[in-house]
Amino acid sequence: MEYGVPVSAGVIFIAAIFTNNILLSNLLGMCSFLAISKELKSSLGLGVAVIFVLTLTCAINYPIYVYLLEPNGLAHLQLVSFIVVIAASVQVVEMIVERTSPTLYAALGIFLPLITVNCAILGGALLMITRRYSYFQSVMYAFGAGIGWLLAIVAMAGIRYKLRWSHVPKSLQGPGITMILAGLMAMGFMGFAGMVSMQ
After folding, report:
1. What angle do CA 135, 64, 83 make, to 5 degrees?
2. pTM listed for this prediction
3. pLDDT, tens digit, 9 for 90 and up, residues 32-44
């Protein structure tokens, strides 16, 4: 089967950030989004790690699936192979963060190794195959999806920081107001829907 859709990689990139934001449109990666978005620095660090891991794993998983698994009738092994690549990439990121920024490493805590099971990473790899992107389109999609995830978590961290001085009703404090904010952010990103279209 042929890969590559009649949409430019630039459009796919912009759409992955805004109109098809992997976090706010597809709701992938919500657990780490809700848990880490309490602090701006941690959110930024995790967002950068997600960009790196998502882009790297899609760039590696694409040729594995298209040139190894699918032609040999092994497409049913895609989940196993994708998860192995994701786990290896996260290990590399974890070692780099631990050596370069021990403070950020401590702040991210268990959520850094949990990028391995962040459904946004696996979802990105599966979506590039389902949508039958070319290699370049896949890499641009993954990079855009990572930036979209970073944008969403940093925006949430900024809003939650401001909420510390707001009078939130007691019944909504904590997860309640966070879920409402996530819904409002998702609605806000829907406003970009007419900007670009992507199949």
Report:
1. 110
2. 0.87
3. 888 888 888 888 8
